[in-house]
Amino acid sequence: MADGEKKKRTPGPIDPDNREVPDRRGAPDGTAGRRRGRPRRLDPQAIVATARRIIDEEGVDALSMRRVAREVGSTPMALYTYVRDKDELLLLTLAGTSTALPRPQLPEDPRDRMIAVAVHMHGLIRRMPWVLKVLVRGDVTDKKALWMAEEIIECALARGLGEAQAVHAYRTLWHFVYGDLVFTAARDQRAAEPDRRPSFTALLTGQDAAELPRLTELAPRWEELQRYDVEEQLTAIVDGLLSRARPPR
Amino acid sequence: MADGEKKKRTPGPIDPDNREVPDRRGAPDGTAGRRRGRPRRLDPQAIVATARRIIDEEGVDALSMRRVAREVGSTPMALYTYVRDKDELLLLTLAGTSTALPRPQLPEDPRDRMIAVAVHMHGLIRRMPWVLKVLVRGDVTDKKALWMAEEIIECALARGLGEAQAVHAYRTLWHFVYGDLVFTAARDQRAAEPDRRPSFTALLTGQDAAELPRLTELAPRWEELQRYDVEEQLTAIVDGLLSRARPPR
DNA sequence: GCAGATTACTGTACGCGTATAGAAATACAT
DNA sequence: ATGTATTTCTATACGCGTACAGTAATCTGC
User: Fold this and answer.
1) Calpha distance B9→A181 (Å, rounded)
2) What's the DSSP call for residue A82?
3) Model confidence at A24, in pLDDT bands (50, 70, 90)?
4) pLDDT tens, position by position, B98-153
5) pLDDT higher at A247 or B244
6) Is residue A6 over pLDDT 80?
7) What InterPro entries does the database record attribute to this sequence (chains A, B) (predicted)?
8) Closest residue by Cα to the C1' atom of nucleotide C24?
9) How many C-beta atoms surround the C-beta of residue B70 within 10 A?
10) Over 80: is that where the pLDDT of B11 sits?
11) What is the pTM of this model?
12) What share of chain B is helix, strand, coil (3-state, %, to 5)?
C-alpha cells in the first residue's frame, strides 16, 4: 500500500465470444466460485447486447453511455465497471457482430487471392462504416476477421516474400484500405450536406495556375477523376509489393 | 420568406491566407465598404491566431471553443459567427500553419521524385500529428501543400500514366500515407498507456492455431514484424502504380 | 427622427464522456 | 457478532460542442 500503483478495474473483462469469464479468483479450478464483493446487478452481456441493438437500429451516432445505461436500467457510471471507456464498448460490440460473416470463394493463384481478400476486406467494412472509428483503437481484435490477415500473409509468403515482407505487405494493404474508406466516407458525408465547403479546385485562381499548372488543368474534372476502382488500385499495390520477392529459382 | 430556405451564415468567411475578406456586399468596387449590421467586436484573425497559439503551446487536446472564446474575451457561441464548427476552426488553423514549409530537394527521375514527395508528405504530417483529424474533413485545403499533389501527378504523367490514372495514383499514395499515420499514431499512443489492452497475438490459443497457423507462428515476433520502413512500402506502391503505364514506344 | 433590415453577439440549455468520492452489499477472518 | 477487505453501484460535478431564442448595434429608406 506504500507508493506502488493501485490495482483497479479488477472485474473480469467481457469475453468477445459471448462466454462469460468465470472469475478466475473465486476458485482455482474451473468451477465458477462465488464472487467476493457486492453481487452484480448488471449483466455484462446485456450491456454489449444493448449497445449492439442501438447501433443496429439507429446507427452508431445514437449510441451513448447514458443511453445504454438507461436502457439496461442503471446509471452511466455503472457501466464503467465493465468497460474502460466508450471505445472499449464499441470494440466489444464490434467483436460480436462480425461473427457470422461467410468467407467468399477465393481464387487459387496467390496474387489473385491476395487481391480478392483485400477487396473483400474493403467491401466488408464499406458496408458497416461505423467500425472505422473503432478499428484504429485495437487493430483487428476480432478473431473472426483474422483469417483475412492470415490469407494475405500466406499468399505473400507463397509468392516468395520473406516473413517480414509478408507482414509489411499485409499492413500496407490494410493501411490503404483504411485510408480509402475514411476518405470515401468523408466525401460521401460532405456530399450529403447541402452547403458544402468549396472544393479546393474552386480555390485555384490566376496566380496559382502558374505554380500548379497541372492541377489547374485538371480542376474542372477533379471530382470525376478522383473516383477510382478500388480493385484496380489494390491490384497495382499488390503487384508492387510482390515485385519485392526474390525471384524463385 | 415563404417556405424557401433561410439564408444563414452571411458573414464573410475567414481567408486562410491572412487577408481579410473585405465584405463583398458593402460596395461593389474593391473598396471595403462599411458593413451593414452591428459592427464586429471580434477579430476573425485573432480567433484563428488564438487557436493556433493554444495548439502550439499545449497541444490540440487543449483546444476548445470555450477556451478560445475566453481568451479572446467573448462567449463560446460568438465564435460561431465566424466558423461553422470546431472542425472548421481547426481547418483554418491548419491552413495558416503550413505556410512556411520549405520544399525539399527532389530527384530528377520521375519515379524517384514521386517516392520522395510521398515520403516528404508522410514525414511532414508525422511531425504534426494533430492535423490528421482535420485532413479528413476538407481534403488538402491548404494551397501551400498542393504542390505535392501537383508533383506526384506530374511525375505519374511523365511516366506514361493517363490523367485519370495519375490522379488515382496520387489518391492511392495519399490514402496509404494517411492510413499508415493513423495507425502508427494509434499504436504509439497505445504503447504510452500503462495498462495496454492485450494485443491480438496474445489471444491466439490452441484452437486458433489450427485455423490460423501462420499468424500463430508469427505471433511472438508480431510487434517487431509490424515495423516497416515507410519509404520501402511507398516505393513498392509507386512501382506497382507505374507498372500500369502503357509502355512508352 | 423613425421603422425595418441586417449583422453580431449573449444567455440558457441539452446531452455528452467521464473523474471522483462515497455508499451498499457481499465473503471472510476473528 | 463484528470488523475488514473486496466488489459493485450511485451521486455529483466538470468541461465539452453546439442548438435555439433572444438582444444589441449598426445601416437604409422614409
Assistant:
1) 31
2) T
3) very low
4) 656 678 999 999 999 999 999 999 998 898 878 888 887 766 666 778 889 999 99
5) B244
6) no
7) Homeodomain-like_sf, HTH-type_TetR-like_transc_reg, HTH_TetR, Repressor_TetR_C, Tet_transcr_reg_TetR-rel_C_sf
8) A38
9) 13
10) no
11) 0.86
12) 60, 0, 40
Domains of chain B: residue spans and CATH: 44-95 (1.10.10.60), 99-242 (1.10.357.10)
pLDDT of residue A130: 83
A1 confidence band (pLDDT: 50, 70, 90): very low
Residues 143-182 of A with CB under 8 A from B: 143, 146-147, 149-150, 153-154, 157, 163-164, 167-168, 171-172, 174-180, 182
**A64-72: long-range contacts, CB 8 A cutoff, minimum separation 24:** A65/A89, A72/A42, A72/A43, A72/A46, A72/A47
Q: Which residues contact A149 (CB under 8 A, 6 or more apart)?
A: A140, A170, A174, B215
CA distance A128 to A125: 5
User: Which of A135, A133, A132, A176 minimizes the C-alpha distance to A152?
Assistant: A176
Bases along strand C below 7 A from a protein CB: 5-13, 15-21, 24-28
Query: What pLDDT does residue A198 have?
Result: 55
Q: Is A192 on the interface with B (CB under 8 A)?
A: no
Q: For residue B216, what pLDDT band results from cuts at 50, 70 and 90? A: confident
The answer to whether A153 and A166 have CB atoms below 8 angstroms apart is yes
Name the grid cell of B153.
501527378
> Cβ distance B143 to A203 under 8 Å?
yes
Q: Are B140 and A200 in contact (CB under 8 A)?
A: yes
First to last CA, chain A: 64
- Option in B88, B167, B179 nearest A175 (CB): B179
Q: Which residues of A touch B208 (CB under 8 A)?
A: 143, 146
Band of pLDDT at residue B24, cut at 50, 70 and 90:
very low
What is the DSSP code string of A104-122? PP--SSHHHHHHHHHHHHH
Q: Are A170 and A118 in contact (CB under 8 A)?
A: no
Angle at B81 between CA A194 and CA B38, to 5 degrees: 125
- Distance from C-alpha of B72 to C-alpha of B46, rounded to nearest angstrom: 7
Stretch among A79-93, B66-80, B205-219 having the lowest mean pLDDT = B205-219
Amino acid at A221: R
Q: What is the mean pLDDT of residues A49-75?
A: 96
3-state per-residue secondary structure call for B72-88 = CCCCHHHHCCCCCCHHH
CA distance to A14, A27, A114, per residue, from A32 (Å): 15, 6, 44
Choose from A121, A167, A207 for mutation: most chain B CBs within 10 A.
A167
Candidates B99, B84, B97, B100; CA nearest to B14 is: B84
- Give residues 5-24 of chain A lying near strand D (Cβ < 7 A): 10-11
